[in-house]
Amino acid sequence: GRSLLLRFATTAEAQEEARRAAARTLSLAEELQTAALKTAGIHHAPGC
User: Fold this and answer.
1) Over the stretch 1-48, which tens digit does the pLDDT of each residue have?
2) In a domain, 19, yes or no
3) CB-based burial of residue 10 (10 Å sphere; 0-12 exposed, 13-18 middle, 19+ buried)?
4) Overall domain count for the chain
């Protein structure tokens, strides 16, 4: 990921877009984990 960012996100605008995309990806992962934990009836993910 980092090498791709260095190669392609060469402007401030592209870097900000990459930051927003990364933040959204993490947000979606958190939403999916929360839904999965509720479905499984557990309070935290293993290893957390």
Assistant:
1) 889 988 999 999 999 999 999 999 999 999 998 998 889 888 777 766
2) yes
3) exposed
4) 1
Q: Which domain holds residue 19?
A: 2-38
Contact 5, 18 (CB under 8 A): yes
Say if residues 44 and 37 touch (Cβ distance below 8 Å).
yes
pTM metric for this prediction: 0.72
Radius of gyration of the chain (CA): 16
DSSP of 1-48, one letter per residue?
A: -HHHHHHH--SHHHHHHHHHHHHHHHHHHHHHHHHHHHHHT-SS-TT-
Examine residue 28 and state whether it is found in any structural domain, yes or no.
Answer: yes
